[in-house]
Design a protein that fits this description.
Helix content is about 35%, strand content about 25%. The chain has helices at about 40-45, 70-75, 95-100, 105-120, 120-125, 135-150, 165-180, 195-200, 220-225, 225-230, and strands at about 1-10, 15-25, 30-35, 55-60, 65, 80, 155-160, 185-190, 205-210, 210-215.
Length: about 240
Amino acid sequence: MLEVRNICVNYGAIKALHGVNLRVEQGEIVTLIGCNGAGKTTTLRAISGLLRPASGEIVYRGERIDTVAPHEIVRRGLVQAPEGRGIFSNMSVEENLDLGGFVRHDREGLAKDRERALSLFPRLRERLSQSAGTLSGGEQQMLAIARALLARPSLLLLDEPSLGLAPQIVQVIFNIIREINASGTTILLVEQNAHMALKVAKRAYVLEVGKVVMEGPAAELAASEEVQDAYMGRRKTTA
């Protein structure tokens, strides 16, 4: 469904990505884990068209998209819920949701998807007229994901959905991620919470300093001592 082929991304003279390769098959949850500054968000921004690779290719459903405008990428069904939620805080919850469907003209389908999103996130239904900036952190994350769903993504990019959230809310968010995937939406997940990410994903990539250094089935990476030591808080023991 998605192939990232040897992409390099620069911020001026700074090289952020050095030949990143990854793929996402239809129906999967694939996760990209790594420390702060590893290049995870840069990878997603390149895929969604917000950054232009200096070299390499990004292919979505058999067509190159690395020179396609971001709004056209959304129209093709590749949608991102950004890091930091990116909601419009001075607008209502309902207005934020309306913006999620701006590329669509099928009113009936949009109404059904809106109802589905509110069923996934019932707290939002109770707060439709409330200013989005007054929501809790968890509710803002729910709004960011719900807004992305209203664009009817075939491939949903999630950037740090658990960032700054209480553990019980993190569990709720990841349960909903599973539910979204089970309903037919493919997901590429960037996440610092490696334990939760590897638990929910089918396959995983580990990014370090702009390079993929490990990849494979998520369960195998979760069992790796190297991954456990670096990303899952395992304490090394000495003889």
